[in-house]
Amino acid sequence: MNRHVMAGETLFKYCATILLGLLFPFGLFAQQGEKPSAATDNAAKDMIYTQVDRKAIFPGGRSGWEAFFAKNHRYPQVAKQSGLQTAVIARFVVRKDGSVSDPEIICSSHPLFTDEVLRLLKVMPKWKPAIKDGKPCDSYYKLPFIFELKETPVDWALKQWK
Description:
Radius of gyration: 18 Å
Distance between the termini: 33 Å
CATH topology: TolA/TonB C-terminal domain
CATH superfamily: TonB
Order of helices and strands: HEEHHEEHEEH
Number of domains: 1
Helix content: 25-40%
């Protein structure tokens, strides 16, 4: 077996393990934690929380997220032709105003998928912000982006020739 294929499979298994760890123990997608972390050392208004009273919510919840992803993601052509499928896990901040900032890729098997996730984070609509002590707050959020092919590369290639 090709050394690069084996490395890709190992990375995919690693990402899948992280993904399962995110989805099941802590609810759907939000990151949990013990203490807030400060974006700056001084002002409480600059706190970015990992533990909140109510997690940030994508407009329309999970079904809204799935519809947004289905409508807006662009499967990288090279990846599609090669039959590559993966999960990319991103961490970002949902601000008090619902905007998304400070994206960070935690796990990705290919730079094409990384670029696509970063693009999606830029065009994402505003979220309902997290609530801490009855007030909207900045909070961290982890979200898996699952790239799956519905058809094989052979099926896709045949359609291109019709």
